[in-house]
Amino acid sequence: MQGISGGILETRPYIRARYGLVETLLKVKTYAAVEAAHGHVTDILRLCRSDNMGVRDVLPALDLRLGNDQQCYDFCKWWATTGQEGDYDWGNMENPYLNVKDADILEPPLENMLDAYDLGHSVAITLLKIRLLLDVRALQNSSTIGTKVPQEILDSLRGQLVSSVVAGKKSIMDSIDRVPLIQNLERQVQDLYMGVKKANKYFWPALLDPGKHIRAQPEAFSHGGREQMQVVLKNSIDAWTESPGALEVIKELVKKNPEPEVFIC
Fold first, then answer.
1. Residue 262: pLDDT above 90?
2. pTM of the full predicted structure?
């Protein structure tokens, strides 16, 4: 089965049932369950490219939970570029689809990502950039012990400090001074944080204090509303809690960018 259309009423029950399986799998907090859910979501998108059910909002967080940071960025970049083209023919299976590969993960966020119209993707890119930032900071801190241990031990240690996407970038791993890169990533994280905050004022407070919102099951939402926050929070919170240090970065950004308290109950 090459592809079906989610716009055809007869196919919707199948897609909904398949997505129901994804939701059930994600209640199981294991790598295997996340991997299986990722496979189902990927296949749903293959069958229904136009994704009128919004299944694509789930995939970036799953990629991050599986350590597929590069795939996460490539996926979000495709949707922020080709996926936004008004004349893209979703029904033409010959058209390029999700064909962004090995995009520059260190590049400044695209305008569509900063606008956070696709809130779930912008939240995922924010987390991805925070993970990069924490990795590069860890590498820079490791330089302080560089003269005290043999180089081969230091190289092994550094390889364990960072994700595979950073470990694979020789220019970062071999750099002596990573401060400019750290400052660049800090600016990117700040910009993304503000973009998400502007798009939905409820999200960051809810991420730090989920409360009952993590159990909410809104049937629909409007952009910028509490219900949108609840959907994105449910899709992404595990990726955040499984990323050491990420929530602490958000707490610091909240302190640096104070505003009147947002009541989200």
1. no
2. 0.88
